[in-house]
Amino acid sequence: MISYDEALTVAFRTATSVPRRAVSVPLLEARGRVLAREIVSDIDMPPFNRAAMDGYAVRAEDIVSAPAELDVTGTVSAGTMPTVNVGPGQAARIMTGAPVPSGADSVVGVEDTECRNERVTVKVSLPVGKNIAPQGEDVRKGDVVAVADTLIRTAMLGLLGAAGAASVDVYRHPEVAVLTTGTELVDISQRPAPGQIRNTNILTLRALLADTGIKCRELGGVPDDIEKLRKAVRKGLGSDVLMVSGGVSRGDYDFVPRVFEEEGVTKIFHKVAMRPGKPLFLGRKGDKLVFGIPGNPVSTFVSFEMLVKPVLLTLSGDSRHRPSFIKATFTGGRARGSSREQMLPGILSAGDGLPHAKTTEWHGSGDMRGLSQANCFIRVPGGTNPPADGDIVEAHPFGAFR
């Protein structure tokens, strides 16, 4: 059994050794993905000297002794190139975003003017360049606007689109196959018979994958039958990543580690000193990664959030992702000591200074209700006393503050 931090380090090292492949996708679909190649602008931005407001394009030297009267020679609208020039004693009516006409070197806001009979009175003097965004001020043609390995955020889409990147090369998301095990499992649409439970883990794992932008290849559920499990695992090994939920502990019907070994999966680690989530398994077959995830619902969620998700994001090109922890003031709840590191479902809320963190009313790794109320995990190091009110703790947020 290895520590959580060691497991995370080993998992990252494994993921970064798997070759990444690039695919081209439309720009809007690239949001949340990682660039595989740099983006170079094919134009200047702005592409011309652009008016920053509605008003009049003038020569600054003509309005030094404001107020000054000027002849209006025409109008320049956004989306058209000027057909007028601005000479001495002249001005051109101009709209926000329009190209500044030749001869003009300043734009006076309409609120500082008064126009009658195509004669405009400019009431203020302005320096050269005022209210004009110069061509290429933001970006020059040929500039790199995004380097490879950049995570594409929503705020970047406008820039990349303006640079001419209608489609971009990003690292391909891994195909993830998900398999659940357990004779007791029935579909969530069914009413469980005595001894049965609804298969909520497949629902949780599909949703967690969707949160990362990764699609799920659902293989369904198999009973505690080693041959049926073997057949399903073989099918799942056709994907980049196989996640098997349940059957990874030490019970008589926990066949998953045995089947993995028999199917040529090399164990990287099995069992992490983490509560919940101890039986977590990571293995590799060629460039395929294999996870065995404990079947208790909270264990499933913790295992995915704290170890599986970082690996999948690394495979998708985001090698800088790490589960983040913030400092918070513990304000109570259910916590107890353990020899293993604990990730307790908790609630983060705003506080004076540090956020506040308290545990939910949680009864163990099968308590989905306690998990459903949480927006963080409160980290309690192994072998330490449980936190008391007022102690500073580390919390990993996975939902919005309340």
The CATH homologous superfamily of the largest domain is termed: MoaB/Mog-like domain
* Strands, count: 26
Which regions contain 5 or more consecutive residues with pLDDT less than 50?
Answer: none
CATH topology of the largest domain: Molybdenum Cofactor Biosythetic Enzyme, Chain A
CATH architecture descriptor name of the largest domain:
3-Layer(aba) Sandwich
- Indicate the proportion of strand residues: 25-35%
What's the gyration radius in Å? 31 Å
Instruction: Give the number of domains.
Output: 4
Shape: elongated
> Helix- and strand-based class?
alpha/beta
Mean pLDDT: 93
Individual helix count: 7
Q: How widely separated are the two ends?
A: 36 Å
Helix content: 10-25%
